């Protein structure tokens, strides 16, 4: 027995190592990135140390002014200034020019530094600037997690809502959640009768119908999204057909609307709802139904009391799958969605690739992960409860 | 359970409509890809292979196709090997926490792709795998391997462990017994997992968007870039070819399923 | 099993080995027809060895990841001004070796620490005269939906759009950045966008505004002038309103840690020289940052649609302004879009 276990461990180990190294650790690293704060401590170590010891009253000691001038100059020379400038500018717009101006002037600045720095840029005479620098000293920060929920931190450490015209991310998560929920609901509602009908069709019709579901299941998500992009063009086939039938007077603008996003997502995800339901329904034990019939239940009662509860695990599995896939979807909203239809994934991609604000990308990923974790847990609890009830 | 005749008609009608909704866009793409003009209207008013010719002569499409297949083949080999080994290990082992282990190994399946992509972007930047084909293969393997594990585990349920014991009693070392006795019995599951891994890799787009370097355009990435730039029927030719691949996957998986079912009955 | 493993091992080794092999000098630009022409006139005429070129979508995230990973597979890359400045501050790009590249041939501001001026680009108002005989000649008229009814199209994003909004509200070009740096000015820009919003469609890809105007969905659009100019050369009856020009310069930079950095510098020297650039101007109305080419009367006469001929009245997009205010204003723009 022990030898078998050794063999088993040996067989599992390579994959476990791959998943660990290439998935679990990276995801953990991402979660850490969402709170990591090292730009200032790395580029301005001495300043950070002095500020950490400072009581936060009034302005910091002359040593802090001297250190910041010297270290900013060194960071410019060593080409490390961009990261720290972006980090501080993200906390407070305008810090970038203060830091860069100081770094460029560092060689010319003379003691007393408190006076010469303030003369260079009035911002150095404000306690807020120093408090911001101190709070960015690391090693961790709540800045990104707060921003990703439309909160900001005041220099004294309090948390307040972002100004109304800057609030974005709560709406974004609600929208992502809302679109995913709507798509899941539509998929489940469409999938159930289909799965039911296919499960009750006679051979060979059942196999043929199932194959017709499997064809889109096996084909590429991007191919199917592209298909909708083509079909829904203003001069595209759908508009052409509707105009031809006299149902429309002028071509409808569908690309760039919420309808297009939902349509494409439903199309892409529907097979993921049908297949689990179908597999549960084909395995339903017909004896239950016969027993119900012999007890005098009519068709509707048999469906509601027996078939529906027994098929619910398939509904939950399919629904959960659709929701999980929808929540992280990038392609469909990016291709067929409009200004108000982008989902969280689009912003993550933008922060990673375009804006190079990796803290925000990580914070948004962390929330998205938490959201899906909650969904998986909920689905587990619900199915677990049902299995228990059946047993 | 018999439905009311009207209910049955309604159900079958609804099913037919949903199936039409699922298939019509793909059929439209296939038809439009043979359009003789740049206009994408139905009916296309002619038949031409010019967009396929364009696809086959444009360097970037050919390169993207080559990249896609190199990565998909490497991913399939790696995912099938590691996934099958792990599934057999999970079936053989008698230890606590097996359910946790299965969950861990299949976690990439329930994680949003964008999160996986972001995580790999950060991690691979640290260890220097960004922009290398090896990095892309490892990334695709991570998202493809859970399907192999699940498929092989499923067929292992039907495998008679007594066969292994018989082999052992005849003096076969465990590894040999696995290779000569177990693998031949569960190969439909392995092959089904491999088909799925191949399809997953060929389809994958979001992770590739972050991981792949220049000159590493895969078919989905090239398609996305082209659609964003300007819509031409060449994209539809590419889509049709990818669609053809998916029909082959479907065929392969069905053949394998039937084989497995027959084996089970025997 | 061995039969199965051997090819796998060979393949893995092959994948590992790829980055270790000597790589051809790789240059990365924005793709499209312009890059095809650059390949024909600039890259292929480089005497010191073969040049491979690929396209990217101006996303600098992967460049950073590649430098951080010390796995640099791009050598020379065409970058936008804000990305060049930030990348230079962070050591993502090599300092240009001005002993190899001749500094004096560039227009003022074209030679910086890490970048050598490549080509200019710009956006301005255009419309199809076949559909609309007259159209807005400046941004105040662009905002005047009484005089010029119809939909308008702007790029989705804060950069350029907010400047345009202020000019649409009557702020002179020279004062745009001063006003936009103040909270009141930002408010004013978004208020102007609010007014135009019922008539606004935003585009994301460079070809979209052309297609929107061609199909008549949009009457007047702000689009990349190079694409509009190509349409005119192809026979379209576009009116291009040069006084509404906003422009900037892209630069060539060498990715830090590139194994081909030295060859990269030589390539940059070559592709910013008059001879290959003059060949390029015969194929495409580019806006070279090489002073001699930009001043060449023959080039100017041959390419009436070249931006160089018209940029005197335009607004140069302020790189430093957008580095400082970009994150904040882009988020506010995204929030505004969602309202």
From TrEMBL, chain A:
It is found in: Cell membrane. Its main location: membrane. Keywords: Cell membrane, Membrane, Transmembrane, Transmembrane helix, Transport. It is a multi-pass membrane protein. CDD domains: TM_PBP2. InterPro entries: MetI-like (IPR000515). Residues 173-379 form the ABC transmembrane type-1 domain. The chain crosses the membrane at residues 172-196, 208-232, 252-275, 310-336, 356-382. It comes from the Bacteria. Belongs to the binding-protein-dependent transport system permease family. CysTW subfamily. PANTHER family: ABC TRANSPORTER PERMEASE PROTEIN, INNER MEMBRANE ABC TRANSPORTER PERMEASE PROTEIN YDCU-RELATED-RELATED. This is ABC transporter permease.
Automatic annotation (TrEMBL), chain B:
The chain crosses the membrane at residues 9-34, 69-88, 100-127, 133-156, 231-252. Residues 65-253 form the ABC transmembrane type-1 domain. This is ABC transporter permease. Its main location: membrane. Belongs to the binding-protein-dependent transport system permease family. CysTW subfamily. It is a multi-pass membrane protein. InterPro entries: Bact_Polyamine_Transport, MetI-like. It comes from the Bacteria. PROSITE patterns: ABC_TM1. It is found in: Cell membrane. Keywords: Cell membrane, Membrane, Transmembrane, Transmembrane helix, Transport. Pfam families: BPD_transp_1.
TrEMBL record, chain C:
InterPro entries: SBP (IPR006059). Pfam families: SBP_bac_8 (PF13416). Residues 1-22 form the signal peptide. The keyword Signal applies. The keyword Signal applies. Keywords: Signal. Transmembrane segments: none annotated. PANTHER family: ABC TRANSPORTER SUBSTRATE-BINDING PROTEIN, SPERMIDINE/PUTRESCINE-BINDING PERIPLASMIC PROTEIN. This is Extracellular solute-binding protein. It comes from Falsiroseomonas oleicola.
């Amino acid at each position: 027995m022990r030898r078998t276990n050794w063999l088993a461990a040996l067989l599992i180990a390579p994959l476990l190592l791959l998943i660990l190294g290439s998935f679990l650790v990276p995801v953990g690293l991402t979660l850490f990135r969402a709170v990591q704060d090292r730009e200032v401590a790395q580029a301005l170590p001495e300043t950070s140390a002095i500020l950490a010891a400072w009581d936060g009253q009034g302005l910091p000691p002359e040593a802090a002014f001297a250190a910041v001038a010297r270290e900013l100059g060194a960071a410019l020379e060593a080409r490390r200034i961009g990261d720290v400038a972006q980090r501080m500018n993200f906390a407070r717009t305008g810090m970038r020019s203060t830091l860069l101006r100081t770094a460029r002037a560092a060689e010319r600045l003379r003691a007393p530094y408190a006076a010469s720095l303030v003369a260079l840029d009035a911002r150095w005479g404000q306690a807020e600037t120093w408090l911001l620098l101190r709070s960015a000293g690391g090693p961790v920060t709540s800045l990104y997690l707060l921003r990703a929920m439309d909160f900001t931190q005041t220099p004294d450490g309090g948390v307040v809502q972002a100004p109304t015209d800057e609030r974005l991310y709560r709406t974004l998560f609600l929208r992502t959640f809302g679109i995913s929920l709507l798509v899941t609901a539509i998929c489940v509602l469409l999938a159930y009768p289909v799965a039911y009908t296919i499960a009750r069709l006679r051979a060979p019709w059942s196999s043929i119908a199932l194959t017709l579901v499997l064809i889109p299941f096996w084909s590429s998500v991007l191919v199917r999204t592209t298909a909708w992009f083509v079909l829904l063009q203003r001069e595209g086939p759908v508009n052409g057909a509707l105009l031809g039938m006299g149902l429309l007077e002028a071509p409808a603008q569908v690309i760039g609307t919420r309808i297009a996003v939902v349509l494409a997502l439903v199309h892409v995800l529907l097979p993921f709802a049908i297949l689990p339901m179908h597999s549960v329904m084909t395995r339903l034990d017909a004896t239950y139904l016969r027993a119900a019939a012999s007890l005098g239940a009519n068709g509707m009662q048999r469906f509601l009391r027996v078939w529906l509860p027994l098929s619910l695990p398939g509904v939950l599995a399919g629904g959960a799958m659709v929701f999980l896939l929808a929540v992280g979807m990038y392609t469909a909203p990016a291709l067929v969605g409009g200004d108000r239809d982008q989902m969280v994934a689009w912003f993550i991609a933008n922060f990673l690739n375009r804006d190079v604000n990796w803290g925000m990308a990580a914070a948004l990923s962390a929330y998205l992960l938490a959201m899906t974790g909650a969904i998986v847990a909920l689905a587990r609890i619900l199915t677990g409860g049902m299995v228990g009830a059946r047993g | 359970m018999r439905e009311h005749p009207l209910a049955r008609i309604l159900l079958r009608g609804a099913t037919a409509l949903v199936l039409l909704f699922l298939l019509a866009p793909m059929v439209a793409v296939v038809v439009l890809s043979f359009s003789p003009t740049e206009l994408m209207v139905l009916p296309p008013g002619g038949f031409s292979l010019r967009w396929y010719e364009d696809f086959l002569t444009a360097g970037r499409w050919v390169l993207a196709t080559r990249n896609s297949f190199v990565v998909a083949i490497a991913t399939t080999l790696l995912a099938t090997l590691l996934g099958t080994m792990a599934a057999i290990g999970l079936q053989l082992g008698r230890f606590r926490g097996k359910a946790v282990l299965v969950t861990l190994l299949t976690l990439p399946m329930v994680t949003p792709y964008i999160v996986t992509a972001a995580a790999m972007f950060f991690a691979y930047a640290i260890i220097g795998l960004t922009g290398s084909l090896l990095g892309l293969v490892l990334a695709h393997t991570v998202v493809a391997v859970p399907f192999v594990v699940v498929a092989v585990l499923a067929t292992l349920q039907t495998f008679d462990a007594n066969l292994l014991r018989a082999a052992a009693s005849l003096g076969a070392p465990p590894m040999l017994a696995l290779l000569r006795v177990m693998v031949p019995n569960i190969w439909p599951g392995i092959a089904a997992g491999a088909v799925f891994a191949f399809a997953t890799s060929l389809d994958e787009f979001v992770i590739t968007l972050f991981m792949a370097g220049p000159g590493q355009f895969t078919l989905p990435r090239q398609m996305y870039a082209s659609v964003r730039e300007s819509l031409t029927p060449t994209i539809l030719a590419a889509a049709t070819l990818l669609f053809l691949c998916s029909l082959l996957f479907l065929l392969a998986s069905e053949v394998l399923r039937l084989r497995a079912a027959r084996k089970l009955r025997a | 099993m061995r039969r199965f493993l051997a090819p796998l091992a060979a393949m893995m080794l092959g994948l590992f080995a790829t980055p270790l092999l000597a790589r051809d000098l790789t240059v990365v630009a924005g793709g499209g027809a312009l890059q095809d022409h650059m390949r024909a006139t600039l890259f292929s005429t480089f005497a010191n060895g073969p040049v491979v070129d690929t396209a990217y979508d101006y996303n600098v995230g992967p460049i950073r990841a590649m430098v951080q990973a010390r796995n640099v597979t791009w050598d020379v890359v065409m970058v936008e001004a804000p990305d060049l400045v930030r990348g230079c501050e962070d050591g993502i790009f090599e300092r240009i070796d001005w002993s190899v590249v001749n500094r004096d041939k560039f227009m003022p501001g074209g030679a910086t620490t890490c970048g050598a001026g490549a080509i200019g680009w710009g956006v301005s108002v255009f419309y199809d005269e076949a559909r609309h005989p007259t159209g807005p000649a400046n941004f105040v008229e662009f905002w005047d939906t009484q005089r010029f009814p119809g939909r308008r199209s702007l790029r989705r994003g804060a950069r350029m759009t907010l400047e345009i909004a202020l000019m649409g509200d009557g702020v002179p070009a020279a004062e745009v950045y001063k006003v936009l740096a103040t909270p009141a000015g930002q408010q004013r820009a978004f208020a102007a966008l609010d007014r135009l919003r019922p008539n606004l469609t935003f585009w994301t890809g460079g070809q979209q505004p052309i297609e929107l105007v061609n199909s008549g969905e949009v009457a007047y659009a702000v689009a990349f002038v190079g694409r509009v100019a190509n349409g005119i050369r192809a026979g379209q009856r576009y009116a291009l309103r040069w006084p509404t020009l906003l422009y900037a310069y892209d630069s060539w930079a060498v990715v830090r840690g590139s194994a081909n950095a030295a060859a990269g510098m030589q390539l940059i020297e070559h592709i910013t020289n008059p001879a290959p650039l003059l060949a390029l101007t015969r194929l495409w109305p580019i806006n070279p940052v090489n002073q001699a080419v930009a001043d060449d009367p023959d080039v100017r006469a041959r390419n009436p649609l070249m931006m160089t001929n018209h940029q005197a009245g335009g607004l140069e997009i302020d790189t430093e302004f957008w580095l400082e205010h970009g994150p904040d204003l882009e988020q506010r723009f995204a929030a505004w879009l969602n309202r």
